[in-house]
Amino acid sequence: xxxxxxxxxxxxxxxxxxxxxxxxxxxxxxxxxxxxxxxxxxxxxxxxxxxxxxxxxxxxxxxxxxxxxxxxxxxxxxxxxxxxxxxxxxxxxxxxxxxxxxxxxxxxxxxxxxxxxxxxxxxxxxxxxxxxxxxxxxxxxxxxxxxxxxxxxxxxxxxxxxxxxxxxxxxxxxxxxxxxxxxxxxxxxxxxxxxxxxxxxxxxxxxxxxxxxxxxxxxxxxxxxxxx
Length: 228
Hints:
The chain has helices at about 15-25, 55-65, 100-115, 125-140, 155-165, 170-180, 185-205, 215-225; strands at about 5-10, 30-35, 85-90, 115-120, 145-150, 210. The chain has a 6-stranded parallel beta sheet with strand order 1-2-3-4-5-6, with helices on one face. The protein has about 230 residues and is α/β, with parallel strands linked by helices.
């Protein structure tokens, strides 16, 4: 089973990032997902480490440099890492991007730099994923695009997820959750919705499925048991 660490910009200097990547390479972990990361709760917007990266593309470049044997403070080394690098994609656009077109421009830039696959932000309407893939292909973004799914587990997430992650919930899902009396009912609705989403995506031939477990592994286990 491949481990895919998420490497983020926030909170880390370039030196700390390089050391972490060297350790991962030593351990034989050769897949990474590079992300800018979100603002911490005490900040209204993302602020990078004083000696860190501002953008995921800068972090991506650092990983690519290591793959080429280029380290921060040394001349080119004979020791090269071999990371397969993924980046994030947003079917409903990143909330800081002025438009989806602009968002796709920067996504293509990362793919052109060397990103080998894309994992999407969570979505609850498969139509938005399919439209996103079509737009990526139209913009010559041809790497695998892995759908990211989040099973709803509480009634509160009906309002929290759109607020935090800037995603829409389909009317049918909202209606079903509105009828639930407690979190147990909401979890059952969320699991069934994710199963149906997953089945449709599998039938469409997606590369694989990525689940945002949020430390709720039993819920994802239920979904997997229904699918595989």
